[in-house]
Amino acid sequence: MGKQPFKLGIHPINWVGEDVREHGADTTFEQIVDDIQALGLTGTEMGRKYPTDPTVLKAELAKRGIQLTSQWKSVLFSDPAYREAELEAYRKHVEFLHEMGSTVISTCEVGGSLHFDPRRTPNEKEVLRFDEAAWRSLAEGLNAAGAIAQEYGLKLTYHHHGGTAVEQPEEIDRLMELTDPNLVYLLFDTGHAYYGGADPLAVLRKHYDRIAYIHLKDIRQEILDQARASNADFVTCIRQGVFTVPGDGCLDFAPIFRELLERNYSGWAMLEGEQDPAEHPAYEYAKKSLDFIQTLISQESR
């Protein structure tokens, strides 16, 4: 095995869908964490099957040698009317992660999103892009949330995400320009970068100094092409199998790992598949992907 300065973990979304609720609906928390332990991994994010009582969750993870790395937090900062309530909810989320020993908080703006924005109606078809006022409000809200995270020793890591108003490369750039680099960091996601039209390696190089957390996700090009041709929305793309684990799709991970190794990235990198586990069993796919990653790291470390 080659030199690996960063920590490798896995997201429970490989076993149980978050946006597609039927994926892995019958899978239990115990099965997920037992599989993670069997894979030899020591980091997991929060999932919807996980116990929410910190005492219970800590005990279950500790006996398997697993650390809770983060938990997704949706925010609606682009509309100033929501800011106060959103920051209050953010603090509660940070308090939970702090108690669990996590160091980053995965954060994503839902304003404008077709699927996640509570103000949208089901018959709408497009993601709404932001005007100047919404961008400014988003940046101010994220800076305030980042300051809350910092109080507890955590970093706000912004998750650029398919199907939201911050998914395209120029939107990632804009967010990084508008926010305080000491308060707002980037969650670099290889699959979402590509889905949003970016070259993942270019995003990694351009914003490396802001990256504090990583999701490793692959894309099935033929599914993406079909989805684009039929103008499918984000959740439909997941149902159709657009995402998979590294090594099973079209992304070239060799230069990505080379970059991480050369720069001595030392944070968490989480394996993500986000596909139907009935068709693509989570443990088997993760095992193959880990073998693929270790082979790449060994080659790059020579």
UniProtKB/TrEMBL annotation:
Entry GO MF terms: myo-inosose-2 dehydratase activity
Classification via SUPFAM superfamilies: Xylose isomerase-like (SSF51658)
EC number(s) on file: 4.2.1.44
Organism this protein belongs to: Paenibacillus anseongense
Keyword annotations: Lyase
Domain of life of the organism encoding this protein: Bacteria
Pfam families the record matches: AP_endonuc_2
Domain Xylose isomerase-like TIM barrel positions: 34-295
Gene name of the encoded protein: iolE
Protein name in UniProt: Myo-inosose-2 dehydratase
